[in-house]
Specification:
The protein has 140 residues and is mainly alpha-helical. It has 6 helices and no strands. This is PQ-loop repeat-containing protein.
Length: 140
Amino acid sequence: MVDYVTRILATAAKRTSAGYVVTLISCILAAFIWNRPAGYLQATVSPWTTNSTIASLYILTNAARVFTYVPQLMAVWRSTDGARDISLFTWGSWVVANATAVAYGAVLIHDLFFTLIAVLNLVCCAAVTVVGMQRRRAQR
C-alpha cells in the first residue's frame, strides 16, 4: 500500500521541488504510522485512551490533511497575480495554531504521532504562507 501511495504522489510531485518535499515528508510519516501495529497507535495517544476511535480518527484525518496542502501550494507557486486568491492572514494564523499544537504535543502530552502530524501541518502551512508572501512581493 505504501509503495502504491508513494508512486502516485511522486508522479504528481515531479512538477515542483516543493511538491516533492511535501510528498517525501508525507510518505515518511505514512510509512512510519503504517509500520506500527494498531495497538501501538492507541497506546501512544494518551489523552484519548478511553476512546481510541477518536484518537484514530484524529491521526488519520490530520495525517491526510498534509496531502491537501499540495494543490494549494502548487496554485500559489504558479500564481502570476501575487497569489491574491489566498488570505495570508488566515494561512499565518494556521501557522501559529500548528506551532501551538507542536508545543502541546511535545511538551504537555509527549505524544510522538500528535507532534509529528502537527509539525507536518506547520511546515505545509508555513510553505503556503511564505510562497504567497514571496509572490506578493514579486508582484509589487
